[in-house]
Amino acid sequence: MKILVLQGPNINMLGRRKTEHYGTVTMDEIHDRMAKKATVLDCELDFFQSNHEGALVDKVQEIRDTIDGIIMNPAGLTTSSVSLRDAIEDSHLPLVEIHLSNIHAREEWRRHSMFSEIAVGIVAGFRWRGYLSALEMLVGILREEL
After folding, report:
1. Yes or no: is domain 2-145 CATH 3.90.550.60?
2. pTM greater than 0.85 (yes/no)
3. 60: Cβ–Cβ under 8 A, 6 or more apart, which residues?
């Protein structure tokens, strides 16, 4: 089982950016923790981060036939990326949407996601821990379908 962990704009700045919302754990530390959890869950992860919407779309299109699901933090693209949503929807892969902060407790404009309607589930507000939960949940869903 192989899962794509897709990270949107500015996730590469975790640990240094708005720590009151996102915490002090870096993206690489999150990826390390996920990789350890993936070993326990007997699955493989492919990590990809970009600050460019088109690169994220390209990655989904490139890898869609070689993965079983997607965990994605769309970050700054949450409210606006029709093209990334379309690429994920067209992949027909299960998506778990993740947000480090609770987007529903923040500014009104952050509360609508372009991805929630196509996601099998959403994890928000648990900072880095949400990634581990998202991984456990997606692996569980995929194993039920196999």
Report:
1. no
2. yes
3. 4, 6, 70, 84, 87, 88, 91
Closest CA to 100 of 37, 40, 10, 1: 10
Lowest mean pLDDT among 26-30, 67-71, 77-81, 90-94: 77-81
Domain boundary assignment for the chain: 2-145
Residue 41 neighbours by CB under 8 Å, 6+ apart: 135, 136, 139
Catalytic residues: 22, 99
Give the CA angle between residues 84, 85, 90 to the nearest 5°. Answer: 100
pLDDT of residue 105: 58
3-state DSSP call for residue 78?
Answer: coil
User: CB-side exposure of 36: number of CA atoms within 13 Å?
Assistant: 6
Q: Which residues pair with 29 in a beta bridge?
A: none
Q: Check if the beta carbon of residue 124 is closer than 8 Å to that of residue 130.
A: yes
